[in-house]
Fold each of these.
Amino acid sequence: MERLLLIWIKDREIVGNTITETNICEKAHAIFTGLKEESSGYDARESSAEPSSDDFKASRGWFEKFKKRSGIHSVVCHGEAASADTKAAADFAKSFEWIVQEEGYVEQQVFNCDETGLIWKKMPSRTYITAEEKKLPGHKPMKDRFTLPLCANASRDFKVKPLLVYHSENPRAFKAHNVEKDQVHVFWRSNLKAWFTKQFFI
């Protein structure tokens, strides 16, 4: 059962699905029940080491022992905690509309700037991976990211050149391919956390 369970965990890793303790326990019980039904002439009473499906509950104790036997471990990838104050946003929209009308701004003068980020080496949040995964570079938990602020006006006829913020001022790929930063179609900026700061905004 545990060998089949590890295969299932591996398959979930390959497709990038998050695996929780609850998922593993439920799948373990399902596999055990299925194996018992498929086994002809199986009688749990013949061996005290083999519990029946009624006895096997995939409990927390079993899970902790399974982790030790199999070597699976939990990894956590941290990201920014996203929270939005919807009431404040609605209030601001009304006050902003009043300012635009009061001052007589036109759509060409109204700009919106926002940022988006890509954590392009991110593992699924809070998941269990098999023991050998920590030795594979492709599955090492990494959080390499960049931030891309975008800005345009309300009339949609003017887009500010994008600003890309990365943790490296001169990435290896640029050096390897002789890429000059003024050749790329973004303003290239860098800081250690790849954050869009006030200085970059100005």
Note: Strands lie at 73-75, 111-119, 127-129, 145-153, 163-166, 187-190.
Amino acid sequence: MLLHCRKFLSLQRGRRITFITQMRTLSSHPEPELKEFLDYIDSLKNYEKSGVPTAAGTDSNQGFDLGRMERLMNRFGNPHSKFKVVHIAGTKGKGSTAAFISNILRTEGYSVGCYTSPHIQTIRERILLGRSGNPVSAKVLNNLFHRIKQNLDQAMREENGRISHFEVFTTMAFILFAEENIDIAVIEAGLGGSRDATNIISSSGLAASVITTVGEEHLAALGGSLETIAMAKAGIIKQSRPSCKLIDVKLQMLGSHQLQNAATATCVALCLRYLGWKVSDESIRAGLEQTYLLGRSQFLTSEEADALGLTGATILLDGAHTKESANALVNSIRMAFPEARLAFVVAMANDKDHVGFAREILSGAHVDIVLLTEAAIAGGVTRTTPASLLRNSWIKAYEELGIEIIHDGMAEYRELLKTQTLSYESNLGNDGKTILATESSLKGCLRTANEVLNRRRGDEIGVIVVTGSLHIVSSVLTSLNG
């Protein structure tokens, strides 16, 4: 099959704007009918907010208790046994691959359930239901919660309050998929694979297992080495069922990481075809071309830049948060804007490789200014990295790479502020030094980044890149709704 891959960063603005507008409409209105449910689920243990315990994703005494999830499923009639599943694990690319596969199958005419995490603006984004591919409605989610709450409460008492936020929401997703009578579900593992709550799918219920990539993320939670991480993710593979690993598509096109995800999704579609599912070449092609996700290589429109008070600015949002995804991000930028002046606005969680992330950004392109800030993670600050600590990591990365900088702990930087020469119109621009600064306000970061890029001499385009976490991306999108 000849797969025609377009440049993923060509934007196709009309279709992208339609998708973003649809999502904003869904999430910008208050959802009072969900208040009781959100209060309930927010009261549960949430490892996205608090951080994952050491060895939680390993097959050890410290690992998550998969038996608890099995008991929970049994209480609700084992809804996960009523549909076939494509199960996806990996360090990066899970969400994009899930979206590609889901859209391929929907295009073919199947009713598809898709379960992913985290979300950008509303928790309903995690459950896409049926042939439309829209997030589950607030009404449907609320009705389900009230129907099962008594059973949930009883389960919570029997499990001594140990049932987590993720386990409850996964249970609700599986119940909805069963009640919707979907043809197939595409399910993203939350952490690792073998001990993840989604890994209760039996061999007979599994259509395909997909492992996208293996990288050094959540090291402590997954055993401390690449080998243990790979073993944890391989736990979703079941005997006698097909599994599809990453296909490295070496095309010299923008967004090569997304081309790899598309190739993986195509492989899964072909596996399903081999198993008897009807999946045409046309559905594969159309499904890939129609796939968009908020916060992944997303350029804001001129209207959205205006709304942020950054008229004329080119703003790129990308939820990259590992060194591998940082490398992919820089490669995409270099392909789209080889001569661009760059300003990075960064916030990260405290369990990421900050130095490795910074090193990949800085070694891939000359950066005019890096502004470090903070963003709430899963509605809390437990996992938020203070901007001051993040600055130390970036300084270390600069030093390792031998790049000269001026940062806001230096007298030279303070002198620049006094003389109002932070515009690069002084010798700062001539000697190649770049600026590293911390800023508590996201809007302040964006404003400063835009000012620096606008005042720099030359005709090169300037690009403001907001990255480091999907949560800072969410903050930007939320501010547009404000």
Note: DSSP finds 18 helices and 13 strands in the chain.
Amino acid sequence: MGFSIGSGSRRYSGIWCTNSVTSVPWVTNREVPLNDTSGVVEVTDQGTLVFLDGNRNIVWSSNSSRLVRNPVVRLLDSGNVVVKDELDSNPRNFIWQSFDYPGNTFIAGMKIGRDLRTGLDQYLSSWKTDDDPSVGNFMYRFELGEFPEIVVREGSTVRFRSGPYNGVRLSGLLEMQENPMYTYDFVFNDNEVYLTFIPRNNSVLLKGLLSSENGAIEPFTWIDPNRGWIRDLLLCVDKCDRYALCGANGICDNNRSPVCSCMTGLYPEAQANGKQHPGREVV
């Protein structure tokens, strides 16, 4: 589980795809890399997964607290690292699982959402750069109001909203409609709210990567060893998906340049004070 990312010398533990060493969907010690190859991963008698440095100092540990008789760690075919009792394969009884603590990658079967009973918050956070997995500027998570919706924030600034749940789907995510590659499952009940996706063909590998540049979810499909991961259409598909791009009273139209314009009877505030938007009523 130990590796370096890119050309850097810093060492991490986590998961990488055997078919592509540049694909690292999950990292334990994102904020505390090692400077040598002395790290080791162990599971304690108490069922806690730990990453130790050469002096056996704990660099990272899971937060599991429930004791089991024979704790073991397993990497499932789904890409989920789990700590469980050796003789118990019921997912409901896992002591701890990496899918509960996503990085920048949305993997099939992973939940993005909230456990309303425990408060567990499962969200994506971008890397700082392609070679630095420490937490970057963007977060993709559910925000709970009267109706839940997914919000992408750059720091505290909203960059994208899915639109609230309308009883059928998240109202602004058109890609949740019929799709030839995968299906979405959105669950909202008294216990939890979450979004997940399931490939229509189990032999096809899919992932969504939260961009460190603009906060868009970039879908990738594994084609074959020669072509590798191929990026599909972005889920934030156009400029008008950007939150509040044209400001109050503004109209966004991808077929125009610039995309922002004003409703009839309004003119750009930029004409008055140099700002980009919004529109202001003509006197």
Note: DSSP finds one helix and 25 strands in the chain.
